[in-house]
Structure to design on (580 residues):
């Protein structure tokens, strides 16, 4: 496939997943920046509601974002599967995220099997080099009917 | 200490933590049911916003609740320490929570050291026996000034 | 079933699993103390080889023991399934184990589903109250042929 | 610093850590292939003892190797610190390792703070592209005296 065709296909896939997510999670301030082969990049718009006193982003926001980035990368890999569910998530908080920057999650699937998909996610304060969190998560994929 | 005195002390502690949490996380639909020696029981009021299509509670709600239950149990053990932060959380999703029941989190600290506190959390759909999720989490405790 | 019958059945099950383990892991210094409904208690005989300089038991010994205790509890629950394999393990080290005491692992399964089994393990220095480690692990169960 | 000088320094560091490990863990069939800034590459020589019936490498071997690779990367970063201890390890098993190939662990530290160091490890069957396991682990670093 030519690069141009591939790019247009990925762009279509991105729109399709974005539309699906908007229906499933209408409240989430999440934008898909890119999808690829077993990868996804997602931005979370930090707002006053995401902050803890002291001015950092709350842990649950980072967990939500990790979970969503994994879901997007899986949908990008196996197609829209509404019944895929998280079976486990492990997250390490590395540094305080900046209160005045949005969050970027970069997800890469480590394995996409028939029954289980496992991936890792790095989260960054937008524009900064050092990750604020790292997560690994497992999704259970329903058997095809 | 007599049982009566102990009970009244724990009740005071519960109110104090509840007030603190309300200031820190004003939006969270969370109620502290009980605190004890290295333990906490917390209820999360499930509403339409907590649901995924298909009628189950979303994973991030369970993560948020786990994190909060750990925080409450730590505050109950070492006193109000605003700067305690989560350093890691591991969660396993065991069963679909019921959409029409609130969630109960029961936390027990496994270790409360000088620098790190580690605990485990079981989450239940209120009134049911089988846990819907199990989490372990680590908090970093700031050095005393 | 009468208590006597149940006890004799569990004792048979224990012997059957012990024999199977001995064939699969002939080198492991592990003894099954008890099995029950979704539970197992296993002892690891600490020897000079298990120690780190400084006189504590090495981390990998605790991981091995956690993994084995989970395996025994699963075999006790679903029967001898040679192809069950660990898919993930999460362990928190809580306290230094004593160099001069054997280790006891107490495992309880949190869920035994058709495809996945999840359990937790507490490890103790024999005779002491505070756990030295806590683990959760997931096994994948092969489909029935 | 010139590239030549840097290389010779890293080579010295590698020898120093290898010598230290040999004293601490004389039985482990482990060889340090490379160390760098917050990174380490370690080989585990698979032998008959490391195998499970069926011909795969046992889970505990992969856990041991993950833990060791993290330790080597930490020692390479902060110097020989005998009292650094693992506080947690999370491992996902992705594919069956080959029975007839050694294992290669590539570790990268995600954060090396004053009290905690967190890193991730990919494990491969030597010469193959897809990882057989992925781990994240946390070490507690003792305060300087």
């Amino acid at each position: 496939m030519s690069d141009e065709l591939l790019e247009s296909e990925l762009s279509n896939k991105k729109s399709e997943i974005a539309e699906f997510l908007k229906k499933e999670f209408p409240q989430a301030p999440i934008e898909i920046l890119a999808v690829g082969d077993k990868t996804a990049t997602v931005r979370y718009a930090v707002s006053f509601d995401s902050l803890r006193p002291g001015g950092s982003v709350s842990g649950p926001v980072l967990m939500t974002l990790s979970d969503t980035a994994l879901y997007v990368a899986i949908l990008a890999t196996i197609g829209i599967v509404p019944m895929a569910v998280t079976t486990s998530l492990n997250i390490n908080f590395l540094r305080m995220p900046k209160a005045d920057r949005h969050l970027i999650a970069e997800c890469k699937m480590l394995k996409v099997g028939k029954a289980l998909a496992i991936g890792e996610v790095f989260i960054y304060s937008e524009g900064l080099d050092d990750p604020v969190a790292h997560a690994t998560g497992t999704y259970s994929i329903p058997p095809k009917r």
User: Anything to note?
Assistant: The helical segments of chain A are 3-24, 59-78. Residues 3-24 of chain A form the longest helix (22 residues).
